[in-house]
């Protein structure tokens, strides 16, 4: 094996981490995570008992089944955001509505914690947009130094987007745009 070969001695954890990073970048990952984390306290608190010394506080409410349904639906919507990102706007709106409904139904929305996480997750899901896929020709190889990259790639990296507007449409030349016959 030569020292120039790449990928032969990579550790399997590094490979899994790169795959996870690529998977995470193609979907509203954080939106789904926040929504699922928000659904857990909403579903859990109505069935929990708190022990303070010898005193047991039962936090169960008459709407325990409703809060369980809201919590399970929020976790399901979070998984939907991960695995079916095409319906991310619907899942985000549904998560926000369920978070708002959890305030009167499920112990003030899981003591505000579940409400806030679900609300933020729904908002992140609505605002997420997929990125433009790069072709294999445009993407720089990580093993190729910047100085050795092709000229077209270097020009693309240093290109500055032009501002739009009538005053910026004319070409910028030293003589003000007037060409002299020479």
Automatic annotation (TrEMBL):
Residues 131-182 are annotated as: Disordered. Residues 134-152 have a biased composition (Basic and acidic residues). Residues 155-166 have a biased composition (Low complexity). InterPro entries: DUF6114, MFS_trans_sf. Pfam families: DUF6114. The keyword Membrane applies. It comes from Streptomyces globisporus. This is Monovalent cation/H(+) antiporter subunit G. Keywords: Membrane, Transmembrane, Transmembrane helix. The chain crosses the membrane at residues 28-45, 57-79, 86-105. The keyword Membrane applies.
């Amino acid at each position: 094996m030569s020292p120039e070969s790449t990928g032969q001695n990579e550790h399997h954890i590094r490979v899994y981490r790169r795959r996870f990073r690529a998977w995470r970048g193609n979907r509203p990952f954080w939106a789904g995570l926040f929504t699922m984390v928000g659904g857990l306290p909403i579903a859990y608190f109505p069935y929990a008992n708190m022990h303070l010394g010898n005193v047991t506080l039962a936090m169960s409410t008459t709407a325990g089944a409703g809060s369980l349904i809201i919590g399970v639906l929020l976790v399901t919507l979070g998984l939907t955001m991960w695995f079916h990102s095409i319906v991310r706007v619907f899942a985000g709106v549904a998560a926000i509505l369920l978070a708002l409904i959890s305030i009167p139904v499920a112990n003030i929305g899981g003591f505000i914690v579940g409400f806030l996480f679900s609300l933020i997750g729904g908002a992140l899901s609505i605002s997420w947009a997929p990125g433009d896929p790069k072709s294999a020709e445009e993407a720089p190889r990580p093993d190729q130094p910047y100085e050795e990259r092709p000229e077209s790639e270097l020009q693309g990296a240093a290109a500055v987007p032009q501002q739009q507007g009538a005053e910026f449409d004319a070409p910028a030349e030293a003589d003000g745009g007037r060409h002299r016959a020479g």
